[in-house]
């Protein structure tokens, strides 16, 4: 077991604190007063780690991701990346949403180019060539070199999501924040993209924080699964470490009894210990 855990986490880049959430509370101001979504969230993520967040709808997963992205500030507590407090969005933290958010009038290439040039602001011809190279490299990375000149309406859902991931990665972020990235895709495309995401993650060594509602997906992809309690004032209820070595092979994992033990731990957390009261008013 010890060997397995060491193998499984050997891709992590050091033991220094990377992303840290300390006593994070977030309240929204509403017409009925303050609504506390998250309370006392503490989390430490290592560089290169793949962490998934699961929890019932409305418990505050997107709020948590938005706080790390810097779209909002915590009401209390603090979030830091490499000991620098996060106070605003930045190219070191890129978000990929469920619904692609590509500009429909631009090609796949142009969608990525727009983001990259806003970060690098190339002036000389050499810098412009470098930016073009970065865009092409990332289109290749997600296997879309041939679709560079297609507009979003000419791409499938899976291809659009790959453009979104390429666009985010092309900014060379330290953290990739994925908000249900495969939620809108059919099951086969979803599995293909999960495998592709694992390849990309291994190549880019980016740290990933991903929200998902799919327990199998979380167990297959993650180093750790963060399980959120129900809101209001949700917090981290439990953290599950996934000990499978990498690279992982889906077919082998699906035959491993430990896969089902881990999956059942998540399901029991969600549907026994933190089941939603569907009969509430
Ligand atoms: N800007 C806001 N103002 C007030 N309330 C908000 C705001 N944003 C989110 N909320 C509320 O905070 C709670 C948590 O929302 P959030 O989107 O973070 O949950 P979630 O776990 O990501 O949900 P889902 O899984 O359905 O996407 C919800 O009750 C939501 O209505």
Summarize the structure.
Helix content is 38%, strand content 22%. The protein contains nine helices and ten strands. Residues 28, 30, 35, 37, 55, 57-63, 231 line the site of adenosine-5'-triphosphate (ATP).
> Helix amount, in percent?
25-40%
Poorly predicted runs are 1-6
Order of helices and strands, N to C? HEEEHEEEHHHEHEHEEHH
CATH topology of the domain at 1-92 and 213-281: Rossmann fold
> Rough shape?
globular
Query: Mind telling me the CATH class of the domain at 1-92 and 213-281?
Result: Alpha Beta
Q: Main sheet: which strands, in order across?
A: 6-7-8-3-9-10
Number of E strands:
10
Number of helices: 9
GO molecular function, one term: ATP binding
Organism: Gloeomargarita lithophora Alchichica-D10
Keywords: ATP-binding, Cell membrane, Membrane, Nucleotide-binding, Translocase, Transport
Protein name: ABC-type nitrate transport atp-binding protein
């Amino acid at each position: 077991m010890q060997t397995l855990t060491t193998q499984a986490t050997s891709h992590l880049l050091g033991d220094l604190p990377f992303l840290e959430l300390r006593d994070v509370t977030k309240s929204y101001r509403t017409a009925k007063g303050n609504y506390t979504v998250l309370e006392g969230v503490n989390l430490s993520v290592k560089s290169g780690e793949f962490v998934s967040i699961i929890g019932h709808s409305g418990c505050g997963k997107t709020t948590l991701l938005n706080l790390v992205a810097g779209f909002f500030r915590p009401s209390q507590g603090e979030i830091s990346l490499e000991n620098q407090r996060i106070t605003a969005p930045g190219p070191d933290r890129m978000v990929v949403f469920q619904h692609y958010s590509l500009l429909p009038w631009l090609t796949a290439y142009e969608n990525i180019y727009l983001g990259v040039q806003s970060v690098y602001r190339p002036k000389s011809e050499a810098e412009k060539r470098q930016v073009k190279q970065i865009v092409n490299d990332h289109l290749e990375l997600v296997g879309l070199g041939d679709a560079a000149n297609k507009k979003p309406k000419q791409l499938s859902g899976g291809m659009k999501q790959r453009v979104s991931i390429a666009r985010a990665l092309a900014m060379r972020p330290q953290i990739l924040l994925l908000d249900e990235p495969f939620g809108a895709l059919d099951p086969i495309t979803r599995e293909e993209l999960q495998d592709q995401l694992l390849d990309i993650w291994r190549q880019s060594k980016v740290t990933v924080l991903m929200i998902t509602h799919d327990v199998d997906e979380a167990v297959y992809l993650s180093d750790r699964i963060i399980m959120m309690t129900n809101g209001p004032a949700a917090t981290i209820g439990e953290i599950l470490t996934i000990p499978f070595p990498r690279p992982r092979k889906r077919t082998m994992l699906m035959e491993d009894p430990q896969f089902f033990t881990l999956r059942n731990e998540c399901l029991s957390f969600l549907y026994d210990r933190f089941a939603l009261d569907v009969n509430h008013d």
